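Changelog note: in this version the structure field was regenerated for every chain. One regenerated record is shown below for reference.
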Amino acid sequence: MSAWFNETLYTAIRQSLRIDKLLFRDKSPFQEVAIFENEMMGRVLALDGIIQTSEKDEFVYHEMLTHLPMMAHGRVRRILIIGGGDGGVLREALRHKSVEKAVMVEIDGMVVEQCLRLMPSLPGKAYKDKRAELIIGDGIDYVRKSKDTFDLIVVDSTDPIGPAEVLFTDEFYRHCRRLTRGGGVVVKQTGVPIHQGPELRQAVKRLRKIFPKAGAYIAAVPLYYGGFMALTWASDRADLPATSVATVRKPWAKLGIKTKYYTPEIQYGAFALPRFIKDLVA
């Protein structure tokens, strides 16, 4: 009889993936880390019983969390990634030759180590890039103390429980604004709205208290049960929904980056929110 991974994110519904081969399971000082193989999804990463990403569909999440804000900003040179231990956001960011520095701050070194060992396609060669700086440390502590400024901050965290809880607070958002003054952009994941509507509503509400502009856009990530996933954004100047297809098409073509999900048309269409999501962030 096959073993199954039963996700623990929700109490009233359950998502299960068959464990065809358990590759790693251990507890770090912060959480339980598990990586297993599944016939349909390839290798899957789970943290504290919650599915994070898979080899088969990771490109959707990582491309939309990275290329969309970078193209909307138009001149990203310095990037800060909070979390992102699987390496996917760092990989995508460094595909832009304009990037001069990408700092990644991940609290759990075990996640970085095991994803690099067992899911190497996610980070690719990102950690070998001279523009990349990996810091194993606390994201909230980093933004409190940093005196640097960034064009883009990507918060690639787990849900607001456990070690990621502080990344959904007013204090964290205030420090992010301080580090992105002058038109910088902050983006983060805020769950699947059909099941996690309060999380999305609260995140946008808090961001709008601190940034002049904030909102949400969507992506369809197959592994995240419940349909569209919401990604939130904030800026003191940039207005991401106003970015037209025509504005992005030529610069994107010049980059020559091949993607599996992101396109200039998706850039624009991602802000066409279904009514129930629009109501959550109104």
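Spot check on this record: DSSP finds nine helices and 13 strands in the chain. The chain has a mean pLDDT of 94.
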